[in-house]
């Protein structure tokens, strides 16, 4: 199935999936069109909304030739407000700890918004940061150019109501020996809930670049399992790339994009660039409930989107099927991609309910490749609502993600620029060390005071 109309004709009313396609037509059309699916019935309606709130007569001609554009802000429905309404904490130091550091700001209690009066590299020296106090927003967009980059460590979230925006996280090998057991995630959630990671750049992890996990079976019921691991999470507009392959992980090869651990639920992975990760682009484990929408997957090694329930890890517990909504994603094989890589694969014999529509999967020469592979892939009749983000057509995903993904897309660093450029050219490389692509960034520190009057403190967007 390639279009919404196909899905309707195919008779998938029982899926009960809510979604929305938003088309911003050239402005000379004078309207904004929305096509909505209504839950269960899939009745098809067109809603027209005039977009202008100011006199447009003198300006209309200016926009006659504008191409179709996609909204990047008004169609995201985040799972949390983070630290909205809380006190401002200013990061004034690039040191890994101490007064004015990011680590000190994360340790603070109470509702808070973390802003930056310094830009550059924070060397964590092997001691990753941890967010253990809830109701916090990390506003990396407030840093002076070139923004904030974390190296030789990552960021872990194990609390609730957290927003992380516009950070670059590049753990790398940190000078450790191959196979030594340095297993650093980029950004990792453990038993976390109501978390939004948006516009971050996660590369060079030696475990996963960006993940959500927790205990598998904490509690007496399936509902308890889901409640007691990570849930209600949105990963959007991120660059998730170049996880290190034969590096410092104790298992050897371990280039992994994203892992959704067993029984994580209400997870949305949307509008991200997955580039040059060997596997897990992303991988959902047993019983996961997730929406995977509008991601661009470039040059995966042996797997793109996958599901895998390890039965040996579920002994004594009732097997739960996975429920995945896979909509509007684009897979492009690259130099390191095996010919048989499909868009979605079930790696286990356990059942997964997968709703797939408007996805594109292309081989090295642009030819269509298979979209599914494996056993027990079923059309789901479980209601899964796309509540956190609205879908855009797959035909626009690559252009949208190339322009919008990653930390500070208006101010990308050389690493992100290279990754996007290579993906657009159908290139890229799965690497074993950050040294293969220039090593850790060397950036001179910059400073600029944060002026609250210049910012909308509710949205943390500049006025």
Please characterize this protein's 3D structure.
With 463 residues, the protein is mainly beta. It has two domains: 25-67; 87-437, Single-stranded right-handed beta-helix, Pectin lyase-like (Pectate Lyase C-like), CATH 2.160.20.10. The protein has six helices and 35 strands. The strands form six sheets. It has an eleven-stranded parallel beta sheet. A hairpin with an 8-residue loop joins strand 1 (20-23) and strand 2. The longest helix is centred in the C-terminal third of the chain and has 11 residues, at 414-424. The chain starts with a helix and ends with a strand. 50% of the residues are buried.
Report the strand count.
Answer: 35
Q: Which architecture name of the largest domain does CATH use?
A: 3 Solenoid
Give Rg in angstroms.
22 Å
Output the CATH topology of the largest domain: Pectate Lyase C-like
> Structural class of the secondary elements?
mainly beta
Distance between the termini: 43 Å
Helix content: under 10%
Q: Poorly predicted ranges (pLDDT <50, ≥5 residues)? A: 1-72
Could you name the CATH class of the largest domain? Answer: Mainly Beta
Observed structural traits:
Pectate Lyase C-like, mainly beta, 35 strands, 10-stranded mixed β-sheet
Short description:
With 463 residues, the protein is mostly beta strands. It has 6 helices and 35 strands.
Element layout with pairings:
Elements lengths: L3 H7 L9 E4 L8 E6 L6 E6 L7 H4 L26 E5 L10 H6 L4 E5 L1 E6 L5 E3 L4 E4 L8 E4 L3 E3 L2 E6 L1 E4 L16 E4 L2 E6 L2 E3 L6 E4 L8 H6 L3 E6 L2 E3 L17 E2 L4 E6 L2 E3 L7 E3 L3 E5 L2 E3 L6 E4 L13 E6 L2 E3 L11 E3 L5 E6 L2 E3 L9 E3 L2 E2 L18 H8 L9 H11 L21 E2 L7 E2 L4 E2 L1
